[in-house]
Amino acid sequence: MIKVFNHWFYRATIARVAIDLMFPVVCVILVAVWVGRGGEIALEKVAFYALIFALMSIAFNAWLGIYQRVHSRTRAETRARAVLSLYLAIPLAYVVFSMLSVAEVDRGFMLLSGLAALFATLLHRVHSAHSRSGLLLSHRVLVFGAGDEAENVGRVLRKSDPDIHIVGFYPSPTDTELVVPAQVLLSRDMSLSDTAHSLKVDEIIVAVRERRGGALPLRELLDCKLSGVKVLDLASYFERALGQIRIDSLRVSWLIFGDGFRQSWRRTAVKRLFDIVAASFLLLLAAPVMLLTMLMIILEDGFSVFYRQERVGLDGRLFNVIKFRSMRKDAESDGQPRWATANDDRVTRVGRIIRKLRIDELPQLYSVLTGDMSLVGPRPERPYFVDQLTRDVPFYAVRHSVKPGVTGWAQVSYHYGSTVDDSIQKLQYDLFYVKNHSLFLDVVILFQTVGVVLTGKGAQ
């Protein structure tokens, strides 16, 4: 994996983006040269429009989740998304190249160049659906440990990272029970450093919970690191591979002495400026949709249109969040707070639509302008549930060190959740955001939020 602006990307993902950028530009230029034989043609202008087309296609692909961080979907679903992206690219190609005003270029050129670019992209998509790694060399990983933690790491590696090859599991002296299969166990006859060098290992993941009493061969791990082999603990590995900070592998010392969790005045100023500009633009853009939503709510269930509720914000301060009302007026008539569920019978018919498309969240843009919220951040929770989760879930209060957001890393990375266990899963993504938040990551999350809305993955 490669770190870009404090955010991890799979090498395969970067390669796919590069190929998606290269194919349209190269194909269009080749067709332009072929069509323009015997005459002059402005290749620079053609290449510029081809680049615009390629960048817009990449944006569509990102919204459709084709470059998604963890690829757990089936090959059939991958191919379906690829076909959908091509269907979107066809009218896009027509619109972009119709603006190309070069006298020597006729309709035949536009047709040939567009079809050539789309055909090349289709070949790449089909190949990617059958071979995730593509032309990239595999990354050789050795897991130190053979217990439950090691087995969990191996399962996550095989599921989430298309680039790795697990060479084996090296048992720790403190492993009381060997959980991983015998065929992948490495012999302890050789030292850890000698084993890593003989197997040409690129990376060692330390997957043991107990580290006292000589459990870790510190000298050998240091030798491996000094010889160019990366060494990661569980928390760092899950942060990089899954975009989350796992509570079950987290230590307070790691939070204190590790990098990240930066809250500089410069980052705060940039984030606030971005929030004001983006929220103002989105409010103007969404005004017709918001007016239509208000009318639909009134026609179905009368007034009131908005729903105000107390939530916990930055540093534990309380504020009122504003949303379009999606539930019946008597949703909590007994005064007892309850988790909202995916198929909640309290939701109105209009409410189901606006929750599915996240239109109910649009009034929160006003809270962004007032400074109570940010566009991107952990979702604000109700005080009743915050008190409960703070008691039951370690490190839950850490998420309140940044402003809550209209959307967040947990919302684009995890499905709809309505239980304490779901809150724990989302917290692990929130901790990743709090540790690594940047303007670049905010833009990535906003792009993926559009993809969540377009593919109908739901609300919350």
Automatic annotation (TrEMBL):
Matching InterPro entries = Bact_transf (IPR003362), EPS_sugar_tfrase (IPR017475), Sugar_tfrase_EpsB_2 (IPR017464)
Q: What is the lineage of its organism?
A: Bacteria, Pseudomonadati, Pseudomonadota, Betaproteobacteria, Candidatus Accumulibacter
Q: Which GO terms describe its molecular function?
A: phosphotransferase activity, for other substituted phosphate groups
Family indicated by similarity? Belongs to the bacterial sugar transferase family.
Chief place of localization: membrane
Q: Where is the signal peptide?
A: none
Report the subcellular localization: Membrane
Q: What is this protein called?
A: Sugar transferase EpsL
Name one matching Pfam family: Bac_transf
Membrane topology annotation = Multi-pass membrane protein
Q: Which UniProt keywords apply?
A: Membrane, Transferase, Transmembrane, Transmembrane helix
User: What residues does the Bacterial sugar transferase domain cover?
Assistant: 271-454
The enzyme's E.C. designation: 2.-.-.-
Cellular component (GO) terms are: membrane
Q: Which organism is it from?
A: Accumulibacter regalis
The membrane-spanning stretches of this chain are 12-34, 46-64, 84-103, 109-126, 273-299
